Amino acid sequence: MSTRRIEVVGPGRLDTGDHKIWREIRAASGAPANPFLDPAFTVAVGQVRPRAEVAVLREDGFPVGYFPYERGFAGQGRAVGLGVSDSQGAVLREGVRIDARALLRACALSSWEFDSLEAGQDVFLPHTAEALASPVVDLADGFERYVRALGAGSPGFLKQTLAKERRLARQAGEVRFMYDETDPGALRTLMRWKSAQYRRTGRRDRFAQPWIARLVEGLARGGDPECRGVLSVLRAGGRPVAAHFGLRSPTVLSWWFPAYDRAYGKYSPGLLLLLRMLEAAAEDGIGLVDLGSGPARYKESFKTRDLRVYEGSVVRPGFGGAVHRLGRAPVRAARRFVRERPGPARAGARVLAQLGRLRDR
User: pTM surpassing 0.85?
Assistant: First the structure.
C-alpha cells in the first residue's frame, strides 16, 4: 500500500525535476497545454506575490501532483494569479484521487476560490457555482483553412476587416506587424493604452496593481519555451496602433492584454492585429488560441468553438470559511444576475463607462 504525503513549498523551491514531472503529468492528461497551468507561471506569480505556495503530493516519496494557490486572510486561498489567470486547477497524475476539502486541510486553507477552473478538474467540479464559455480558435489545420472557414461563415466580417486594413495603409502609411516584439517601450505603450481603457469603461485598472505590472514585465523578459510572454504589435506608418501581450506554451497561446490607440479606432486595429497574430501563431506551431472567458462580440466572430471553464470555491467549515462566504457569495450572485440578463448588463456597462469618463476629467 502506497504512502501519500503532502508538502507545501514556495514556488521558487520547485527544482528542475519538479518542473519536468509537472509538465509530464500535464502532457499525459491530454488537456491543452495552457501556459497558465505551467510551473513557470506559478513561479512568476511567486516572484511578485510572496504568499503563493504549491502543495506537492507525493506517493512513496515520488511527486504525483501539484496544487498551486495563494494564501490570504484567515487561511482563505485563491487560484494563483486569480483575476488574470485564464486556466486554473491542480495537476494530478492519472489515477490520483483526493477530496478537495482534505487537500485544503493539508494546506491549512479554509477556502479556495477559482474563476477559470479548467474542465476535467474532477477534484473541484463538485464545488463549482457556474460554468462559463471560453471561446478558442483552432489552428491545428493551419491558418489558410481557418481563414477560409471564417470567410465562409462570416464573409461580411472578414471582408470589412481586410478593407479596413487597406484603408489604414492608404491613410496612415504602410501596415506592418511584429509577432514577437522585444522593445520594452512597446510594452509600456500597451500598458498605458490598457490602463486608459480600463478607466474609460469604468473597470478596475489592473495595471494600477503593482504586482500585475511586475508579473507582465517579468514574463516579457522570460525565455522559458514552455511558458513565456509574447508581445505583438501592429504599426501603421511606423507608429504603433494596436498591441497585445499574451502567454504561450509550445502549442497554446492565450489572448491576454489587447489594446489599441483610440485615434485609429475607425480602422478596428485590434481586429487587424488579432487576424495577423493568428496567422503568425499558426506558422509558429500554435494549434490553439484561447480568447478567454467573458463576453465580447469580436470573440464570437473569430472563435471556432468554446471550451468550458468554471467559477466557484471550495469552503471548509469554520471561521475562515464563514468569512469567505460572507465576502464572496453576494458578489458572485450579483455577477450571475448580470450575466443572465443582457439588457441590465448593457445598461450597467454604459453607466460604468460614464463614470469612467467623469473620473478622467
Answer: yes
